[in-house]
Design a protein that fits this description.
The protein has eight helices and ten strands. It is of the alpha/beta class and about 260 residues long. About 45% of the residues are buried.
Length: about 260
C-alpha cells in the first residue's frame, strides 16, 4: 500500500486527479477498451472532481471512452432529489465533462427488487471487464462506501442499514434533520472495491486521523473496513498532514521518504 501525504486537501486532490487522468490516458494509448472508473460521493472527492473537470476542459484527459460505476445510493430517495447521489454526481461532475451518459452507472435505490438491483450491478461491472480504478473516501469510523464497521470484507453489492453515526454525519446535507436521512442504502461491498485493479482512498482533515492510523498501522479487521486496502496490490491512501496526525513518527517518515521522488 502506498501512502501519499500532501500538505493539504487541495494538493492531495490534485495528486489524485492527476493519477486518475494518467491512468485513463495510459490505457487509451494501448487499447480501445473503455476505462472503467469507480466513483464516490460526499464532500471529500469534490476537489478531485473539480481538478478532473479542469483537466478535461483543457484537453488533457477525455471521458468519452470511460465507463463509471458509483459506490452507493440511498434507498427510497427520488433520483431527482437534491440529496440523491444521482443528483450529486451530475451536478458536481458528469454534466461538466465529455462522458457519454449511457456509460454512467449508479445504483437505483427505488428499484422494485433491491436485491436483484444489487446482483445485476455486480454483473454489469463484470460485463464491463471489471473496474480499472476505484476512487473512494473513508468515514470517521473507517468505513468505505457504506460498508459500516463489522461489514464482511468479502461483501459484494447489497442493501445496507446505516449506523446512527453515519446518519448523523450525513444529516448536514439534510438541513441537520436526522429524520430526513434515509436509513437504508445500496452499496458496493468491500470485495467489490478491492476487486478493482487499482484503489485510491482519500482521507483529509483531523476528523479522519483515527481512520488513517487504523488503515495504515492497525490490524486487518472488519471493524475498520479501510484496512482492506492493506491487502490490495495496488492500493493508495492519499491523506493530508492533518489526517496523518495520529501516525507514528517513524511511519510518517517512512512514507514521506519513499514517496519523495515519485511524481505519480
Amino acid at each position: 500500500m502506498r501512502v501519499i501525504i500532501e500538505q493539504n486537501q487541495e494538493k492531495g486532490s490534485v495528486w489524485a486527479a492527476a493519477y486518475i487522468a494518467e491512468a485513463i490516458n495510459r490505457k487509451a494509448a494501448v487499447t480501445n477498451t473503455p476505462f472503467v472508473l469507480g466513483l464516490p460521493t460526499g464532500s471529500t472527492p469534490l476537489n478531485t472532481y473539480k481538478e478532473l473537470i479542469r483537466l478535461n476542459k483543457e484537453g488533457k484527459v477525455s471521458f468519452k471512452n470511460v465507463i463509471t460505476f458509483n459506490m452507493d445510493e440511498y434507498v427510497g430517495l427520488p433520483e431527482d432529489h437534491p440529496q440523491s447521489y444521482h443528483t450529486f454526481m451530475w451536478e458536481n461532475f458528469f454534466s461538466h465533462i465529455d462522458i457519454n451518459p449511457a456509460n454512467v452507472n449508479i445504483l437505483n435505490g427505488n428499484a422494485e427488487d433491491l436485491a436483484k438491483e444489487c446482483a445485476d450491478y455486480e454483473k454489469k461491472i463484470e460485463g464491463a471487464g471489471g473496474i480499472d480504478l476505484f476512487l473512494g473516501g473513508v468515514g470517521e469510523d473507517g468505513h468505505i462506501a457504506f460498508n459500516e464497521p463489522f461489514s464482511s470484507m468479502s461483501s459484494r453489492t447489497r442493501i445496507k442499514t446505516l449506523t446512527e453515526d453515519t446518519i448523523l454525519v450525513n444529516s448536514r446535507f439534510f438541513g441537520g434533520d436526522v429524520t430526513l436521512v434515509p436509513k437504508l442504502a445500496l452499496t458496493v461491498g468491500v470485495a467489490t472495491i478491492l476487486s478493482a485493479s487499482e484503489v485510491i482512498i482519500l482521507a483529509f482533515g483531523p476528523k479522519k486521523a483515527r481512520a488513517v492510523q487504523q488503515g495504515v498501522e492497525g490490524a486487518y479487521s472488519h471493524s475498520w473496513t479501510i484496512t482492506g486496502l492493506q491487502t490490495h496490490p495496488h492500493g493508495i491512501l492519499i491523506t493530508d498532514e492533518a489526517a496523518a496526525g495520529e501516525l507514528k513518527v517513524n511511519t510518517y517518515k517512512y512514507f514521506k521518504d519513499i514517496e519523495k521522488d515519485n511524481l505519480l
